Amino acid sequence: MMSPSGFPPPPVKSQQQRILVLQLIASVMASTEIARQAGEGARAVPLSGHVGFDSMPDQLVNRSVNHGFCFNILCVGETGLGKSTLMDTLFNTKFEGEPTQHNQPGVTLKSNTYELQESNVRLKLTIVNTVGFGDQINKEESYKSIVEFIDAQFEAYLQEELKIKRTLHSYHDTRIHACLYFIAPTGHSLKSLDLVTMKKLDSKVNIIPIIAKSDAISKSELTKFKIKITSELVSNGVQIYQFPTDDESVAEINSTMNSHLPFAVIGSTEEVKIGNKMVKARQYPWGTVQVENENHCDFVKLREMLIRVNMEDLREQTHTRHYELYRRCKLEEMGFKDTDPDSKPFSLQETYEAKRNEFMGELQKKEEEMRQMFVQRVKEKEAELKEAEKELHEKFDRLKKLHQDEKKKLEEKKKSLDDELNTFKQKKTAAELLQNQAQQAGGSTTLKRDKERKN
User: Fold this and answer.
1) What distance, in Å, lies between the first and last C-alpha atoms of the chain?
2) Helical spans, DSSP H, in 124-274
3) Is 76:130 a contact under the CB 8 Å cutoff?
4) How confident is the prediction along the chain (455 residues), in pLDDT tens digits per residue?
5) Distance (Å, rounded) from C-alpha 336 to C-alpha 354?
């Protein structure tokens, strides 16, 4: 039963289970169709009684419900566009988070994971916010950190897949399933930053563009703004996520909603009493804007398309399209191929051996180059040492000759000093002798005078 707006009524427990069953049945039917096409020619055998494998959808539902689900949303947009408020409004809760500073030199991504439960279905929700996006004066590289973050999640999943002992059944999948790109309600055109960023992200994530705070512009301006955005996205080759129309149960709704992109949304967790009921709304001096009123904004459309109808398709598109593209490119970079130059199947062992031989050849080549370089360096060092040794010998000879000359001069000076010393000693001896003789002569004269006085 459809509501007047064209969407299913709010989900109750039984209806939620029915939706889950329908999605899993569609998945089983798709798998069955693929198996049928792959195994055409197999003989069809009629059953003579009930076997029981028609309970597989129920088994899948029970297993999925017991295991729980995960969903990861990336919110990209400039500061002040109400990203956190919209997330709170979408999931009807208040996500606790630390306040972030917006004075950083670059864009940083902040990830928070929450455990949610509705009826008996558990959801591990991860919300990734781009802190500081659009705050810098130079915005040329604002998208790089976002691309690197998305690639890092793909790489983590790929490394888990390549492990010998894998635990994918309990692995927390952090790959981004949906990117809500918040567009400022300027009413004119997309900014260069928006176009460049979406162009870099469209091959890596499912982009759903939304016009934030759409109550800032009038309805006529909003319609023109939507047309302008769609035109610019097409002219610049930006591929946004299109709601799938191959499933008959949701083809009509999704086809209609594709024409409403980008969604013009308003977020608010405040409840205002309108008539006899409380509704989420934003109050202004001129009136009240109701979040869940489709005449006021597209919030209901966004919630229906993102959560209630296409959440599983977003997860599937992430795995089968974006992750597979990353995986294929990464494996090709590593040298793995499906076919050889003759278009024959290539086994993993052959690919490994070919890559190993190539690596060993490159290793031997580099080893030979390093050996030649080492020999050349040794020769150059030997020549330098020989030249230094020659200079040392020449210096030694000069110093030796200088030493000999100095020694010769010192010996001559010593000889001269020795001669002077001998001469001095001779003169000293003669002087002492004369002094003694004079003293003796003086002593005898004194004695003679003393004798004469006595007489």
Assistant:
1) 179
2) 144-162, 192-201, 219-235, 248-258
3) yes
4) 344 444 444 444 444 555 555 555 555 555 555 545 545 567 888 888 888 888 888 888 888 888 889 999 999 998 888 888 899 999 988 887 666 666 677 888 999 999 999 888 899 999 999 988 888 777 888 899 999 999 999 999 999 988 888 888 888 899 999 999 999 998 888 888 999 999 999 999 999 999 998 888 888 899 999 999 999 999 999 999 999 888 888 888 888 898 888 999 998 888 888 878 888 888 888 888 888 888 888 899 999 999 988 999 999 999 999 999 999 998 888 777 766 666 666 666 777 777 788 889 999 999 999 999 999 999 999 999 999 999 999 999 999 999 999 999 999 999 999 999 999 999 988 888 888 888 888 777 777 777 777 76
5) 9
Is domain 63-270+297-336 classified as CATH 3.90.550.10?
no
Token representation of residue 257: 């909603």
CA dihedral (65, 245, 292, 191) positive or negative? positive
Task: Give the residues across from 113 on adjacent strands.
Answer: 126
DSSP state letter for 187: S
Which two tokens mark 208?
């759903």
DSSP symbols for 27-72: HHHHHHHHHHHHTTTPPP---SS--SGGGHHHHHHHHHHHH-EEEE
Report domain extents, the chain: 63-270+297-336, 351-415
Q: How far apart are CA 287 and CA 400, in angstroms?
A: 107
Q: Which tokens in the block code for residue 105?
A: 């030199």
